[in-house]
Design goal:
Elements: E1 12-22, E2 29-35, E3 38-42, E4 52-57, E5 66-75, E6 81-85, H1 91-99
Antiparallel strand pairs: 1-2, 1-4, 2-3, 3-6, 4-5, 5-6
Amino acid sequence: MKRVERRASTRFNVDPVLCRMVPTGPGLCVLRNVSLNGAFFLNHTPPDVGSKVKLEFTEWPLSGYKLVGEVVRHGLGTFRGFAVFFPIPRPRLLRAVYHGELNN
């Protein structure tokens, strides 16, 4: 049976990029994939579904880049972590992780 994609935007797997929750949450997060309106982060103790999360990237090409979004689901299978929905599309995030540049 063919799997139906629930997301409005296509997601893209990316090279891992470290980030942290602000204020500091439990451990670092690792960016796993992105779309125009969201991202999935690997993390062993994800924040509650429905909570707002502030993220700050700590590695190039996103060093110092900050995002705010809502936790919409947990990934508890192969990749433990959480998915974040951004209320405003983030094309700069996609450009940065795919082209190694983040223009301010």
